[in-house]
Write a structure and sequence with these properties.
heterodimer; A: about 475 residues; alpha/beta; 6-stranded mixed β-sheet; two-stranded antiparallel ribbon; 21 helices; 8 strands; about 60% helix; B: about 325 residues; Rossmann fold; 3 domains; 5-stranded parallel β-sheet; two-stranded antiparallel sheet; 16 helices; 9 strands; elongated
């Protein structure tokens, strides 16, 4: 039983739900209390113990349904046969009516009688009646009413067959066979052979039934293997792809991977913000805050009871981000905006600006729209003109230079290609003087920074840091450093 | 205690008893309380504001007939306010009194060593239970028959405070350096933490809790909630207003109306002797459900459509009731 659970947890981890060993233990306790009998109850319970955010809950939902879906499969296959039967005999409408009337409670009974009907059709000579009891372990499992234990046995067999190792889809047949073998197929086949040869009718009847159920089991196992393949192999592949995407140049990312990149970016931004967004107090260890201590101890008649130490409050960084969205950086602009958007989502004090020639604030646009819309709108509204850094900086000065103070970090994303216009380095110098840090992230590689109309050499005199930034890895590292040094 | 065991015997009995206390809950919520009781784990409740997170803790306390100890979290909350504090004033007073009797105490003491030993006895007295001012968390641990402990809006507190909670949440104990470890009595408290998600709760805290997410209820559940809270409202109006609110939640609003707002609105409409929704009435009472002028202006244009839809949708779709 526990193995099934650990297995399920492995699948969840694959689907990027973070589960610690402690939570695994909790889940085991919960399962011990709740049991595997009631599926909805089990799901509710595990949903409380394992996933810990709204997103994770969604993932949990789908994973749970995929993982523990045998019961439904079993119910369906039986039901389908039963329905067909009913229609043959008495017409669809009546069959349905019967089902509705029967309701949930008599579901099991209905199943039984339908099995009986099938038997009659196939082999008239045996007729309904008592069946012998199966002897092999698998046979007994198959003849049971519920499928829960069979399911558990199947999961255990899958474990024995190392199903989680499955890598490519061509292995599905092989693993199906392996799982069946591990469940004791050999014994069952032998038993069916013996029973067939038996002179007693109940035993022959059992042989037929066992054979039918064996085929049904094979279907079940195949489905199961299929799902496991999706659960395990898919995630491995995904991780590989993500690793690759982190390193690849952003301009080379294919369109179909945009979604994935978006997720990576958001996750990255979240992680960075979680690490650095808190407002902290740094205590200067051992330095007594004399005046405050005296003040606070006045009420104790001047006896110094309550000591106060010197501390410095570290504020959350205030970030102004200016993003070039002109034609020359079109391939990167998307990702830069994506990152800006994500950053804004997770950090309270980010103001974003976009420009190609004229600069405008897009903070509110980002706040009000979904990421795709926001990026599309920004690109639509601002990416038209030819690049003019001078104009953009002038706009920036007009718009919010007053709000730049010594706790502000300014990030400029762009290639500094100014079409031979006036670079207005004086404004950049002003930013440099007023702010805590100015950081320039350039998507081009360092050796083309000063080729052609690029003005990077002039600008780099007035920034604290100029960095090449054209892959997610760069972005992650730079922003991580940035937040650390700001905090 | 036996009563509680009986109540918490199964999820269904919990659900019924919640209902008897006018708290209509989904299976998920009842399961959370069930597991919290049996596994002895705290429950971290998240969800949009006004879906009944705090109410769940209150009702649980009421249902189990246990005292509710509530700690409202805010920025700057620390252990002196949450766990315990020494009664400085009293300590000071006693020192003054002792000063005068010091001679008596030390009388006949043979040399310095013995004097110090005698003084040490006082020191221990000063940092004993006598001078300990228990705050909510310590109080909760000391309740004889258990209690319900509610840490409200834990996301408002600082990171440091979260770490402070870890010990009490995982082991139901607090360590006080001068006294030692205080453990929960026979029955550990049932702990609820609520969070509005203004910031991420740390993984360490989440790991120690069951995590319950309460979303906005579906139409059916919301109708039952209104029925339980505002029993006098006519069924038809109830259906209409719930349908209206449900549609409103799909709009792009700054602050989406929660259950508490639905209840307020139901009460308002009842007060105005309303039989059925009409656009004029909705416009006049919109400020009960929407709390931002911007939202009210945005919705204004849609009122007629939404109202008609709510009035007309005569038990179609998910609003079907048997």
């Amino acid at each position: 039983m526990d193995r099934t659970l650990t297995h399920f947890i492995a699948a969840l981890r694959n689907a990027e739900v973070r589960i610690s060993p402690a939570e695994t233990l909790d889940a085991m306790n919960a399962v011990e209390l709740v049991g595997y009998r009631d599926r909805a109850f089990l799901k509710d319970s595990l949903a409380l113990v394992l996933p810990k955010t709204a997103d994770e809950k969604e993932t949990f939902d789908t994973t749970f349904d995929q993982f523990f879906s045998f019961e439904d499969v079993a119910g369906q296959s039986v039901a389908v046969e039963g329905d067909g039967d009913g229609e043959d005999g008495e017409g669809g409408g009546e069959g349905q009516g019967e089902d509705l009337g029967g309701g949930k409670g008599s579901g099991a009974k209905g199943k039984k009688s339908k099995f009986g009907a099938i038997e009659e059709e196939e082999e008239e000579d045996l007729g309904p009646g008592a069946m012998a009891d199966p002897r092999s372990a698998l046979g007994r499992l198959l003849m049971q009413e519920g499928t829960t234990e069979l399911t558990v046995r199947m999961a255990e067999a899958a474990k024995e067959a190392d199903l989680t190792e499955i890598q490519v889809f061509t292995q599905k047949g092989l693993y199906t066979r392996k799982v069946m073998d591990a469940m004791g197929l050999a014994d069952l086949v032998a038993e069916i052979g013996e029973l067939r040869a038996s002179p007693h009718i109940p035993e022959r009847r059992l042989a037929q039934e066992l054979k039918r159920r064996r085929d049904w089991l094979r279907e079940l196992v195949r489905d199961y293997v299929e799902r496991q393949f999706l659960l395990h192999a898919d995630a491995t592949g995904r991780r590989l792809r993500e690793d690759l995407l982190q390193k690849v140049k952003l301009s080379n990312v294919e369109h179909r991977n945009f979604r994935l990149i978006q997720e990576i970016v958001l996750r990255m931004a979240k992680k960075l913000a979680a690490l650095h967004s808190r407002r902290r107090k740094v205590f200067k260890r051992g330095q007594l805050h004399v005046s405050r201590t005296l003040r606070h101890n006045m009420s104790y008649d001047g006896s110094i009871f309550d000591l106060h130490w010197k501390s410095v409050k570290v504020d959350r960084p205030k970030v102004f981000a200016i993003c070039d969205v002109s034609g020359s950086v079109a391939a990167y602009a998307r990702f830069m905006l994506m990152f800006l958007y994500s950053l804004e989502e997770v950090m309270p004090k980010v103001r974003s600006f976009a420009f190609s020639s004229d600069l405008a604030e897009v903070t509110e646009l980002f706040e009000r729209n979904k990421i795709e819309d926001a990026i599309a709108k920004t690109l639509r509204d601002y990416s038209g003109g030819s690049t003019d850094y001078g104009q953009a900086f002038q706009d920036f000065r007009k718009l919010c230079m007053d709000e730049v103070d010594n706790r502000t970090t300014i990030i400029i994303l762009g290639d500094a290609r100014n079409n031979y216009g006036d670079p207005r380095t004086d404004i950049v110098k002003e930013m440099y003087d007023r702010s805590k840090r100015v950081i320039w992230l350039n998507p081009e590689s360092r050796n083309t920074w000063n080729v052609g109309d690029a003005e990077m050499r002039k600008y780099s005199a007035y920034v604290h840091q100029a960095q090449e930034c054209n892959s997610l890895m760069h972005l992650n590292r730079i922003v991580g450093n940035l937040l650390r040094s700001v905090a | 205690m036996a009563d509680i065991e009986q109540l918490a015997a199964s999820v269904d009995s919990l659900k019924d008893s919640f209902e008897a206390h006018r708290y209509i809950c989904s299976n998920q919520i009842a399961t959370a309380v069930y597991l919290a009781f049996h596994l002895r784990k705290p429950v971290l409740i998240e969800g949009p504001p006004g879906v009944g997170k705090t109410e769940l803790a209150k009702t649980t306390a009421e249902m189990f007939a246990l005292p509710l100890i509530r700690l409202q979290c805010y920025e700057g909350l620390d252990e002196a306010k949450a766990i315990y504090e020494w009664k400085y004033g009293k300590q000071l007073l006693y020192t003054q009194v002792l000063k005068e009797t010091l001679d008596e105490v030390l009388q006949g003491a043979q040399g310095f060593a013995e004097s110090v030993t005698r003084l040490h006895e006082f020191g221990d007295i000063f940092f004993s239970e006598e001078f300990l001012e228990p705050r909510p968390l310590l109080k909760a641990l000391r309740e004889e028959d258990g209690c319900v402990l509610l840490l409200d809006e834990v996301d408002k507190s600082d990171h440091e405070f979260e770490s402070l909670l870890l010990e009490i949440l995982s082991d139901f104990q607090v360590s006080i350096p001068e006294i030692g470890t205080v453990k929960a009595h026979r029955e550990p408290p049932i702990v609820f933490l609520t969070s509005n998600n203004t910031r991420e709760i740390s993984d360490a805290l989440k790991r120690r809790c069951l995590h319950l997410y309460i979303p906005f209820p579906d139409a059916d559940l919301e109708q039952r909630i209104i029925h339980a809270r505002v029993p006098d409202i006519p069924p038809e109006l109830r259906r209409q207003l719930v349908a209206f609110i449900q549609d409103l939640r799909d709009l792009d609003l700054k602050k989406v109306p929660a259950i508490s707002e639905t209840i307020d609105w139901a009460r308002t409409l009842l007060l105005l002797h309303t039989e059925s929704l009409d656009p004029e009435l909705v416009r006049d009472t919109l400020n009960v459900i929407l709390k931002f002028q911007e939202d009210i202006e945005n919705v204004d244009a849609e009122i007629a459509t939404l109202t008609n839809k709510a009035v007309r949708a005569d038990g179609i779709g998910p609003k079907v009731r048997p």
